[in-house]
Q: What sequence folds into this?
């Protein structure tokens, strides 16, 4: 646990007590099975499904592979995929690695999610799918997106990398779209160190995803699909199982600290916040929006002088990364990406540190 003087980073993995992980690892050692969808992976999938009320979950090696597998499972290998300009680069890499073209749509300045009103204008005869992102765990307007997708016969794959534990109208957010792809990376609410998951709403798609994950094998080990290696190992699944036991507490803790930060900062002139329903959102990040990049950079300096290291998620706006994509305008995303900062927010973060961060921010604005 960090002392007051230790550096404080934007996040730290939420970890179960080591003895609990060791016990699960002992079982892995005993079984001698390390991979190939062994008992721990299967148990992790079942326990995730029951914890988050999912039909099923296909555990994979990371969130980027989960997105690629979603595209493969829906037979998308070419064409245009409409996505958001305000995201982590992995959304775009997954689209590109599956030989599709990312087409960027701008975001709503309040929710920071893809603006559904702009989607139809981006649809062309080559559009095959929409890949929105639940940014910082904040649910997209899934109903509007579903209506557009239905009207234009497009597939919807949610980049739900941040969305474990978020809900929409009481149902897990991971249940929306043809497939949702999540991440269990070390920096996520629920982690397996590296890892991810695909959540599909039809049993056929679940089976297909399982084949794709395992070189295209069917249960008889015949190659029946164009698959690859997306498997999660037993060692990673064991960590996921250990951590899953604490997920409700972890989410409650995030929401508590989220509300606390918000209350401490909402009167500060010149700051604004992502529009979030704390009940539905898992509050996995605490983004703060400044009036200008200059003010935001000054805040980074002030915090860093106190050994506090916030992070610029997501900067720069991916549509401007011209070495990997063709530039198209997304003025809201480009503007917000320049002046948004995520504050430290994690399970082990002491409330005294949250108070100190709030104080430093207030002092800078005083
Ligand atoms: N879609 C979206 C919307 C995503 O945000 C992401 C990933 C993906 C798809 C793809 O999912 P994965 O393929 O990654 O499963 C992180 C993560 O690498 C990445 O998973 C995440 N999104 C992205 C938003 O952020 P960084 O650049 O912040 O990592 P880093 O190393 O700077 O870590 C931040 C802080 O966390 C450090 O200052 C210290 C702490 N930390 C980090 C690690 C890795 C630890 O305490 N322990 C650790 O093991 O990337």
A:
């Amino acid at each position: 646990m960090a002392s007051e003087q230790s550096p404080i980073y934007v996040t730290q993995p939420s970890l179960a007590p080591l003895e609990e992980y060791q016990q699960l690892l002992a079982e892995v050692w005993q079984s001698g099975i390390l991979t190939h969808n062994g008992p721990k992976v299967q148990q992790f999938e079942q326990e995730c499904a029951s914890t988050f009320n999912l039909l099923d979950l296909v555990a994979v090696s990371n969130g980027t592979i989960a997105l690629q597998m979603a595209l493969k499972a829906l037979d998308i290998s070419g064409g245009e995929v409409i996505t958001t300009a305000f995201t982590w680069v992995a959304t775009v890499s997954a689209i590109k690695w599956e030989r599709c073209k990312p087409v960027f749509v701008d975001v709503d300045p309040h929710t920071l999610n893809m603006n559904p009103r702009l989607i139809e204008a981006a649809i062309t005869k080559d559009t095959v799918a929409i890949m929105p992102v639940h940014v910082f765990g904040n649910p997209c307007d899934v109903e509007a997106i579903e209506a557009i997708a239905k009207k234009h016969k497009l597939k919807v794959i949610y980049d739900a990398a941040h969305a474990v534990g978020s809900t929409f109208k009481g149902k897990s957010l991971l249940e929306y779209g043809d497939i949702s792809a999540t991440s269990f990376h070390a920096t996520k609410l629920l982690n397996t160190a590296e890892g991810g998951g695909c959540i599909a709403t039809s049993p056929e798609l679940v089976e297909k995803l399982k084949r794709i994950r395992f070189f295209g094998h069917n249960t008889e080990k015949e190659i029946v699909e164009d698959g690859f290696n997306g498997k999660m190992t037993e060692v990673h699944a064991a960590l996921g199982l250990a951590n899953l036991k604490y997920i409700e507490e972890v989410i409650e803790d995030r929401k508590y600290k989220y509300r606390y930060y918000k209350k401490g900062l909402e009167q500060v002139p010149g700051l604004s916040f992502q529009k979030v329903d704390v009940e539905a959102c898992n509050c996995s990040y605490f983004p703060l929006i400044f009036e200008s990049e200059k003010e935001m950079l000054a805040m980074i300096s002030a915090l860093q002088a106190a050994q506090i290291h916030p992070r610029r998620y997501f900067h720069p706006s991916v549509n401007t990364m011209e070495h990997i994509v063709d530039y198209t305008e997304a003025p809201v995303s480009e503007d917000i990406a320049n002046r948004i900062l995520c504050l430290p927010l994690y399970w082990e973060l002491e409330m005294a540190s949250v108070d100190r961060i709030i104080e430093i921010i207030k002092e800078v604005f005083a």
